[in-house]
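Issue: copy button drops trailing tokens. Both records pasted manually instead:
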Amino acid sequence: MKHGENAYLDLLKHVLEKGTKKMDRTGTGTVSVFGYQMRFNLSEGFPLLTTKRVPFRLIASELLWFIKGDTNIRYLLKNNNNIWNEWAFKNWIESNEYTGPDMTDFGNRSLVDPEFNELYQVEMDKFKTRILEDDEFASKYGELGPVYGKQWRAWESSRGETIDQLKNVINQIKNNPDSRRHLVVGYNPGDVEFMALPPCHSLFQFYVADGKLSCQLYQRL
């Protein structure tokens, strides 16, 4: 098994040499391959990359947010994590209550128009402050819909039951380690249209063998 850094660099090389150019919803475009797999042996250490900036603090706080079952950006902002701001901000500026300057297509405009970017940053800072200080505003405009945390910790079944997938899989691993059903699924087709963003890491499965725990993650393109 290759060191984590080398596995990542091999992926980049493979994508550049074998990938297919495709357009996407952002209009930026991608070069992609389908079904590529990387393997990492965590007994050799955490595969933190050194050839790109990896904001580990943000990764950790976002993961804790998922595990909490939270779907509101307020927790993230309290931890100085701005990963999900734009989706919540979009809901705010498209609402009937917003009366500020035109923020249409703010993501693209802020990249090419320095003057607009300054205005956008001011409005975003106002938005973040209200999320942190105004409970009612945060409840209404900080929510991202039934994203990761909701699906992991409170999946709603067709019978109206609430299923804590994360708790269940931990119990299964402890009490029935040889089961082939150690799965946590984030991609709920019935809820996708109500999510700010469909889950990128859409499911993961655990496997126990010889006293060791493995995890396989499926990341959608």
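Record 2 (pasted manually too):
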Amino acid sequence: MRTCCIYAVGMNTAVEQSAPQSLKQPPAADRVYTHVKQGVLDRRYEGGTLLTEGELAEAVGVSRTPVREALLRLEVEGLIRLYPKKGALVLPVSAQEIADVVETRLLVEEHAARKAVPAPPGLLERLAELLEQQKAQAAAGDLAAAAVTDRCFHAEIVRSGGNEILARLYDQLRDRQLRMGVAVMHSHPDRIAKTLAEHEEILDALRAGDAEAAVGIVHRHVGWFSHLARGEVR
């Protein structure tokens, strides 16, 4: 139930720091892929940034060949666009992407919220734990980590329904959700307080066993992003 939160943005774990040198490093292309992807997700590489093979090779400490391989993977995922002899352009989050993600999230999450009632104690405990974690991250100004925890909060509800196909579909939105979440928190810093309040409302509705209230709050909470797609932020 906690697998969704293993993913973290820009985090060097103690295990990684203390790992014996004898342990084999991931392939060079994988290291470049991870470096660039996390940079895009936590906004070290913002939309519109042009990345060159030489700069990335130097940053990760590899040759240019694995850099090309990694960039091709990232282009397939829609995070960058390659320009021969120029480099890779980090694609900004588009209005259409926001609209598509919101539409998919509403379909999945409203169904999941309804199905989560009556909520098992383990789910309620986990959501409360994530909410407190997100509050601490927001207070510390760690918006990238808060975005990861935000995504985990919703993923736990989806996973609680026991539908593996639906859970996998939702997992495919992970990177897009994280990127959008960090971008929104930076451009609308007042939104984090409202997000935390709405998470609290969702948790309270699940505790009360009120499926329709939970669905209504999820609709309002996720649907807010559609205003971004239309340029109507409120």
